[in-house]
Amino acid sequence: MVAVKNLSPGLILSDAVITPAGKTLLNAGGVLSQRAISLLSMWDVNYVYINAEDDHEPSESQAILPPPSSSFDISKECMQFFQEYDSILTSTDSSFEFVRNQNKVPVLALKSTSFAIYSSILTTGPALMDYLLISDYQLASKIARHTAMVAYICGLIGRQLNYNETELKALTLAGLLHDIGKMVISHENSSTSEKDHVINGARLIKNVKGISDEVTLSVLQHHEYLDGTGFPMGISSPKIHPYAKIIAIADIFHYHSYLEDYCNPFNALNVITKDMFGKLDPTICQMFTKQVRDSLLNSNVILSDGQEATIIFFSPNSNDPIVKTLDQKLIDLSTDKTRSINRMCTPDYPLS
């Protein structure tokens, strides 16, 4: 057991960190970052269990070594966003656990979280996509992370489409609730299909006071595709609610960006580009993928050969950028097929 005040980045947890209420904050086997250590302090955790071979005080020489990750200049605005984001993940996690245990919708709590996301989108401004692309995937449950991120992305797309305040709030709430049916599947059937979560989700929130019919319809339709190949009803474009078309894109983007432990939005960009002239709304896809590519400029990435590089340019209609390595070599990944982008570089940012 090691005091949190004596922890250093790189140590490995031997046991999960669990609150008195039974919520898992960090999983066993996780490698501690500076951010995770700061969060432990914020959560009033005083001691954690560390792998035996790591259970020692760092030497003076170890203490002065720089962290292995890249150096980032974290702005005050970025820090503020991450604090808001952590709070949103915590509240989302709590609400979804309530749904899982009670099979009821804590509508006031979820609407409060949705409004916090909406407010965060408005106050953060154009840099929001930059922050979302480097957000930490390791905190909170998978469903909480996914639904919160989809809500954020929906709000961003809605702003680009010039939605008014009422529409943005409804769209953000629909994005937050889109997978709520996954919380009730286990109570419904022992054997389930993929389409069950959208049906169960719409059934759960239907007629709940404070949740509009358009939000319920969007939850039901977010896996429908424009060409009629989606589910649960297999309807085509004219019958799909505009919010559901946006949620479909946001859902695909976040899911494919995080197939691994680290963010790699290039997988998602390629999937959206492939499906934008059949399954997905092409106008929204083109607008959104351009925004993502613009946000990725000057971002640091790790290549498949282990090199760190900076994205400096995207050719028109290409998701494979030109990057510059640390030794100043330029690599055009649209023509060099021997290398690809492995993941984004993610900063470790303290919250105190």
From TrEMBL:
InterPro entries linked to this entry: HD/PDEase_dom, HD_domain, HD_GYP_dom, HDIG_dom
Residue ranges annotated for the HD domain, each copy included: 143-256
Keywords from the named record: Hydrolase
Keyword presence, Iron: no
Keyword match Hydrolase: yes
GO-annotated molecular function: hydrolase activity
Signal peptide: none
Domain HD-GYP: 121-304
Stated name of the protein: Metal dependent phosphohydrolase
Source organism of this protein record: Pelosinus fermentans JBW45
